Amino acid sequence: MPISTWLDLSLFVLVVCAAITDLAIRKIPNLFLLLAWCAVLGLHLVDTASAAAIGNALGGAFVGFALFLPLYVVRGMAAGDVKLMATVGLFLGPAETVQTCILTWCAGGVMALVMILFTRRWSDAYVNLRSLLLPMLRIGPMAQASVMARPSVGSMPYGLAIAVTTLWLLAQRHLT
């Protein structure tokens, strides 16, 4: 079996396991992510073009981390979600990681709207969204103000959004 098939199979297992644990306990275990990093780097080391492949993988990890880190900084998501997206980027490379991040943000937005609809916490959600967006629009000293404590609308299993998007992209890759 080619290396790319092993990588896709490993990515499939990773995102499914991450989504299940995120749904069950609202955490993405670091052990999953560490095993995935070892698998990717190990598979690339047995590949003949390992230097270019490892560089591409690390570039994807950097892109995933960089695009999700701002949401963690403003307390819009958990650190496990950022680490999961960096790990997914390790499998996909930079270009596909950008696409995955954008689609995941869309899927996460839909999930958030559904959660807010079912919990009927519209006013808390408005306060949260406002406190996330206003600091980004301010210029000068007020832009550095710390994020105030705000009422939680509930934790969202963002690992599920990452998994759904990744699985959709993998399906497109193998079914078309």
TrEMBL record:
The keyword Membrane applies. The keyword tRNA-binding does not apply. Residues 10-113 form the Prepilin type IV endopeptidase peptidase domain. The chain crosses the membrane at residues 28-46, 58-77, 97-119, 155-171. Signal peptide: none annotated. InterPro entries: Prepilin_IV_endopep_pep, Prepilin_peptidase/N-MTase. Keywords: Membrane, Transmembrane, Transmembrane helix. Belongs to the peptidase A24 family. This is Prepilin peptidase. It comes from Massilia jejuensis.
